[in-house]
Amino acid sequence: MKPQNFSGESSLIQESKRTVGENFRQMIKAAMVAVDGRGSGSSRPISNSKEIERRNGNMGYGSDQKKEATVIDGKAIAQTIRSEIASEVRHLSDKYGKVPGLAVVIVGTRKDSQSYVSMKRKACAEVGIKSFDVDLPEQVPEAELISKVHELNADPDVHGILVQLPLPKHINEEKVLSEITIEKDVDGFHPLNIGKLAMKGREPLFLPCTPKATYLVLKSERYSKIGCLELLSRSGINIKGKKAVVVGRSNIVGLPVSLLLLKADATVTVVHSHTHDPESIIREADIIIAAAGQAMMIKGSWIKPGAAVIDVGTNAVDDPSKKAGYRLVGDVDYKEACKVAGWITPVPGGVGPMTVAMLLKNTLEGAKRVIKQ
Amino acid sequence: MKPQNFSGESSLIQESKRTVGENFRQMIKAAMVAVDGRGSGSSRPISNSKEIERRNGNMGYGSDQKKEATVIDGKAIAQTIRSEIASEVRHLSDKYGKVPGLAVVIVGTRKDSQSYVSMKRKACAEVGIKSFDVDLPEQVPEAELISKVHELNADPDVHGILVQLPLPKHINEEKVLSEITIEKDVDGFHPLNIGKLAMKGREPLFLPCTPKATYLVLKSERYSKIGCLELLSRSGINIKGKKAVVVGRSNIVGLPVSLLLLKADATVTVVHSHTHDPESIIREADIIIAAAGQAMMIKGSWIKPGAAVIDVGTNAVDDPSKKAGYRLVGDVDYKEACKVAGWITPVPGGVGPMTVAMLLKNTLEGAKRVIKQ
User: Fold this and answer.
1) With an 8 Å Cβ cutoff, is B231 touching chain A?
2) Which CATH superfamily is domain A208-220+236-353+361-372 in?
3) Chain B nearest-CA residue for A251
4) What is the pTM of this model?
5) What is the ipTM of this complex?
6) Whether B239 contacts chain A with CB within 8 A
7) Inter-chain contact B274–A265, Cβ cutoff 8 Å?
8) CA pair distance B192, B8, nearest whole angstrom
9) pLDDT tens by residue, A48-74
10) CA distance A27 to chain B (A)
11) B325-351 burial string, b = 16+ CB within 10 Å, else e?
């Protein structure tokens, strides 16, 4: 097929590359570690070209079946990005006397939501973003929540508004979310943002955080390698022309990730609850994005040797050996996958920390648009 | 995989079904014809259950290799839809004393654009939609075109605005299109429309015409069969769970068609200029949407026996035997495809007339929203 109608990578994607590209030296040290398959330690940085060559090679393992996947350490990459954000926040503060502000709204007392919210607020504090805490009771009327959103829309010190989901059943989530002004929609869930994300030649104000994180995780690996060893710049996790399979099609992850990968020139297939024989489709993928919300659904045998596996799932499974009585696992059977994949993100410690970093980054970007005006 | 996060078919999709469902008896007579593979005639309605059984069966041909694909006669289906629109327009006129109005704006003297525009204006006249003709010279300044759009936005008798593309090089298309108020964006190209089309639980004000046409062509076949012979209602062109491959990813066809098919529960892959080995991916498809703009790119050998092939391409190829010196062909090698596919749309006479019908339908819908208020 001849190239047709493609206007090249968007500047948003280019921007993401720059962000990562600038820091590949630190990242390669922190992020490219090989672990023992349980994600528990004994990590060793990849430091010699033979090892990297083997991992890239044909994106497979050939005779070297016992080697493990390269683990993409989202926590380490996120830490680097957060340091950058902190330094930009300091710069804004010094130059303009203003800092970015993020309103985090929570309704009710769901434990998981509370834990996510407190993590986000803590992350804000660490980088110098002012957190506006709005805690509303479970029974708050929808109208009251909406009027709170309007108040935050009007507050010039608030540059991003996040309403923690899910909301209680008596509240219409869609209605509440569409009240957030698009200039402060740091979650990127507004349909106008999604439409611009989908369309060639258009760019959203904000990319949804998890898709942005997923994309950056993929790209960081690629750029790390370019920085590390020019020889390998054309192998590894290159998105263009690769077969990408996105498992799940939620508005907040699966759908926007698939749109983003399509814009980055992957050949994208979306697999979902009505797909016949998902294994056979997933097995063809060079890049797997697991976002189905099904604990350990994707088995080692479903993965093409050498594929890049980005696990967006976070599922609690019973585990009496843990104090909490449960542990978190992804949508991928990590232990099995490590034996087959070329690259993999662990759960926890993969996409999760990156998503929080992207929320901070979106807030910073929103603030810069306003403050620098 | 267990069902997850899917909120069911949107009412927009259901609405499309109803429109077609109501009329399947007329449609089955008009639309389901088998032709001789050149699309030139000798058509015969499918009228006996054995024939339909053979055509559906395993969606393939087995020992019966010489049989031809069922041709989906878009012209006939479009005619039925246009009759319905005409009757609704009469009803509006009788009850409210108002008719829908469509502004068709053309800049310059491109022959193909002029021919499309005159076709659209003629189609308006036939169903009683008032056409507002705006013909601007090639050199019109961008600002003047935009101020014309603003004027049409404000005109209460205009319910739809269509700016014929492409525009001359000195004019920024995206800028002009985004000046059209979303309530009159009958082409459905506004990013807010595309975002809502993409997202679960959201619905666009207008579906872009060609994707809407494509969807309806697929559905009409299905509903024809259900009406015709209950026995076969679960075979044939059922979208849910089927493998659909969309070839091309333009903002106006490929992208929105893929989003629509995903919403209708197909397993969707988008193939484009950077896809490696497109044949092998297309060969897996139960439903092929050809929208690459490459004359006869898709060969018979690329098609899975029994697949439904919807050809959105319209390409002019030299043909000295024609008075005009050229003829129009699709993205599919029609003659070859007829021997392999289960269903196929011809070019011309397939998706094209349906697209014009959808433009009229969108204009009617826009007008009803305003007039009935």
Assistant:
1) no
2) NAD(P)-binding Rossmann-like Domain (3.40.50.720)
3) B199
4) 0.82
5) 0.81
6) no
7) yes
8) 21
9) 344 434 444 444 434 445 578 888 888
10) 29
11) eeebbbbbbbebbbbbbbbbbbbbbbb
